[in-house]
């Protein structure tokens, strides 16, 4: 993102006539120019210093509503951005204009006989999983944001979550999308293109080239996704069981090899943290038996539909950890992740879509770590497993240089070992009202990104607009092709300008 967006106060404005036209399409109650509402939508969760007001906030209730909003915006050359549940940067309306609040577009339609769910863009991922549980089904990627993020953002980012070690990222399980374009057209891709036939929505490749992947990481460029279809799998909470292993700091090579070996064994979920992440749990006495030299922490969720299958998964994990020198910690599995065998006492609530255990919610690591430090900023990127050590030590070096490698800033790693890549998030806890903290955090970011951008990192969408154009330009001719495609689909460049292009 260019600095001009932080500095300029330019606003295009939307005329009263356009507001009236939007009201006539959507109904008065679904169009707001109220200052308080615009203020609320001007914010980004991850980047509190970035505030840009939309001129008008609109709430569609059908895919056709979205198409009509885009047609009006396109005719009048008004910028448009779609916003999900919380937002982490790329849904701040950098040039004002129309902000589409997707959360009113939230129907969920389950086809258990085909193991498919069709969901509107603004239904929360969490709500979709909760509905699927009624049929003992799930989409087996469970991010930690619970009800805060919407299904289309989970696809666009694309989200990773518990389950990503075996199943990849959310977009890998998507079999079709419906997209509204600036000319008011609605297009269905993949399995959704087959929706009107007798066989219906069942298979991603319906005949001819398949375009669903074109709409990942669009960040409201090209168009707005209105509906998505996902494949599901059979799921019961009883089929999960947790393990926990630690490594010393000098075992970084062995730790990286152990993680990659578990990925190759298709363990359901493997999660990586370092000691900074676990310190608040030690301070609060949540875990008591944590060796002083336990620096790297591996949480494992096994998934087996019979006890024999679960035991086999656990044995594989122990075999790998024995080979590389990881130490098992049963207390930490139970207290920081979840039960080593499911029991009803671990249920937080029977409406939870997956057990969640000690991983999310008010008594989980997120709340505990924030309580013990401050607000967090993250980086979030994918890279190949063989760079595990180099990326870890790059973060460590920069954090030491800027003076945040200490308990005050808890600069931890929180990483999802995904099927096809290692997705690491580096965190810095800071006080957003302290200028010295802001300057340290800024310096960390400025020093952290260039090296990994140059090495070829793929960024998780949440902060994509902050990596500079280099992250896009590394794509070479593909980026040029994207620009040509944009000129065709969005000739007036109204879709979230200033983000990808
Ligand atoms: C506590 C917490 C935990 C988190 N844990 C995880 C995690 O485990 N895994 C993970 O992957 N992420 C995680 N995140 C990050 C999360 O993925 C992002 O915050 C995500 O962007 C939130 O989605 P949202 O619904 O707020 O959508 P937004 O942030 O508003 O949208 C994301 C981007 O997608 C675009 N977009 C959204 N919907 C559409 C659409 N229909 N058509 C076109 N473009 C669209 C938006 O314009 C924006 O550019 C976490 C965040 C928090 C706060």
UniProtKB/TrEMBL annotation:
Organism: Candidatus Marsarchaeota G2 archaeon ECH_B_SAG-G16
FAD-binding PCMH-type domain sequence ranges: 50-235
Alphabetized GO MF terms: D-lactate dehydrogenase (cytochrome) activity; D-lactate dehydrogenase (NAD+) activity; FAD binding
Keyword set, alphabetical order: FAD, Flavoprotein
SUPFAM superfamilies attached to this UniProt entry: FAD-binding/transporter-associated domain-like (SSF56176), FAD-linked oxidases, C-terminal domain (SSF55103)
Protein name, as recorded: FAD-binding PCMH-type domain-containing protein
Lineage: Archaea, Candidatus Marsarchaeota, Candidatus Marsarchaeota group 2
GO biological process, one term: lactate catabolic process
Keyword Ribosomal protein: no
Classification via PROSITE patterns: FAD_PCMH
Record Pfam families: FAD_binding_4
UniProt keyword RNA-binding present: no
Domain of life, per lineage: Archaea
């Amino acid at each position: 993102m260019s600095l001009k967006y932080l500095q300029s106060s330019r606003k295009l404005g939307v005329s009263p006539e356009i507001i009236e036209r939007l009201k006539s399409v959507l109904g008065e109650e679904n169009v707001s120019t109220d200052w308080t509402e615009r203020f609320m939508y001007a914010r980004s969760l991850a980047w509190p210093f970035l505030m840009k007001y939309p001129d008008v906030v609109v709430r569609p209730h059908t895919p056709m509503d979205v198409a009509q909003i885009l047609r009006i915006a396109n005719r009048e050359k008004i910028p448009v951005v779609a916003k999900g549940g919380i937002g982490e940067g790329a849904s701040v309306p950098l040039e004002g204009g129309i902000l589409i609040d997707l959360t009113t577009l939230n129907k969920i339609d389950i086809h258990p006989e085909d193991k498919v769910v069709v969901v509107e863009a603004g239904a929360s991922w969490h709500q979709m999983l909760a509905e699927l549980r009624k049929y003992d089904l799930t989409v087996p990627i469970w991010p930690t944001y619970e009800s805060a993020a919407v299904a289309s953002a989970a696809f666009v980012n694309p989200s990773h979550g518990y389950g990503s070690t075996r199943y990849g990222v959310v977009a890998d399980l998507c079999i079709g999308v419906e997209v509204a374009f600036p000319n008011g057209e609605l297009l269905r891709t993949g399995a959704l293109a087959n929706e009107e036939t007798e066989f219906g929505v069942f298979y991603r490749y319906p005949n001819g080239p398949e375009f669903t992947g074109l709409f990942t990481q669009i960040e409201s460029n090209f168009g707005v996704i209105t509906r998505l279809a996902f494949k599901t799998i059979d799921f019961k909470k009883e089929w999960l069981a947790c393990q926990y292993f630690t490594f010393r700091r000098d075992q970084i090579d062995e730790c990286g090899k152990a993680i990659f070996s578990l990925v190759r064994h298709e363990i359901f979920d493997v999660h990586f943290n370092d000691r900074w992440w676990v310190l608040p749990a030690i301070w609060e006495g949540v875990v008591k038996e944590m060796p002083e030299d336990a620096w790297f922490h591996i949480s494992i969720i096994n998934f087996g539909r019979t006890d024999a299958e679960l035991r086999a998964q656990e044995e594989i994990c122990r075999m790998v950890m024995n080979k590389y020198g990881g130490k098992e910690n049963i207390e930490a599995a139970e207290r920081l992740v979840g039960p080593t065998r499911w029991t009803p006492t671990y249920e937080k609530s029977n409406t939870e879509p997956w057990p969640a255990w000690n991983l999310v919610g008010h008594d989980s690591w997120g709340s505990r770590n924030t309580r013990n430090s401050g607000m967090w900023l993250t980086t979030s990127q994918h890279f190949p497993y063989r760079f595990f050590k180099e990326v870890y030590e790059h973060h460590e070096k920069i954090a030491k240089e800027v003076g945040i490698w200490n308990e005050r800033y808890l600069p931890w790693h929180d990483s999802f070992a995904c099927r096809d890549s290692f997705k690491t998030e580096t965190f810095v806890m800071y006080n957003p009202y302290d200028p010295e903290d802001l300057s340290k955090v800024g310096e960390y970011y400025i020093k952290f990104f260039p090296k990994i951008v140059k090495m070829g990192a793929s960024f998780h969408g949440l902060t994509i607009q902050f990596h500079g154009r280099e992250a896009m330009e590394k794509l070479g001719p593909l980026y040029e092709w994207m620009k040509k495609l944009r000129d065709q689909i969005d000739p007036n460049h109204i879709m979230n300008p200033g983000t990808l292009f």
